[in-house]
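>> received
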Amino acid sequence: MAAAPVSFHNLVHRPLNPAPVTGLLTRASERYELKWSAGEDGHPGINADLASGTEATREPVSRSFEVLGTNGTSALSTYYAEGGITFTTAGANDDQMILLPHLDTKQTAWSQVTWGTDKQTEWACNISTAASVALVTLWAGLKLTNTSVVATDNDQAFFRVTAAGNWSAIYSIGGTDTTVDTGVAVAASTKYRLGIAIDSSRIARFYINDELVATSTALTDATDLIPYIGVHANTGSAKAMNIHFQSISRSIG
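>> returned
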């Protein structure tokens, strides 16, 4: 039987489940969960900053997340005064700023733990748009590679919006892509809470601002996905987005 839909509140505020024993296990959870308030461990920078011999370069960057993307740099990842991190593209056509876990071995559990379609993986983020959403692509969710292009990954479940349109919920199963118009328009200077919950039948449910907006068919079994968040300048001037929070969890075992 498929699990009941999960609200965004539960995605980011899941309580520890009491175990039916006393002692140390009385509040042990049946799930493994990570939460990240953007900027809490430094601002995300390019991966090379971690190995820099210059302390002023090495120490300020996040140990969990890095920056990728065309012309993406550490300098374009800055603290947001209202809470979080601002990603700003460099200013040319097709420039990108992409947030992803460090993929180095042993660097962070965000990438060294697997987030499988067969493990009831749940992911959520809290982001906000900049003063302009024209000529920009925003995307976030669970993918195999660091691209917003729908056709690249054979298996994925993520959100995407482009050219000030509606958010799309996208899922791919063995190379077959499905794009669902959620009916939720992107607006300037607006917060969005995005969530994806994959149940025990590998059905992915997509949430925007606590509302269920799309439901997939069964995803490919035993496929490990990676959380990504990105901003892509379609053309013209620099584009930006604010990242406030991200969480991910899975069943243990």
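>> The radius of gyration is 18 Å.
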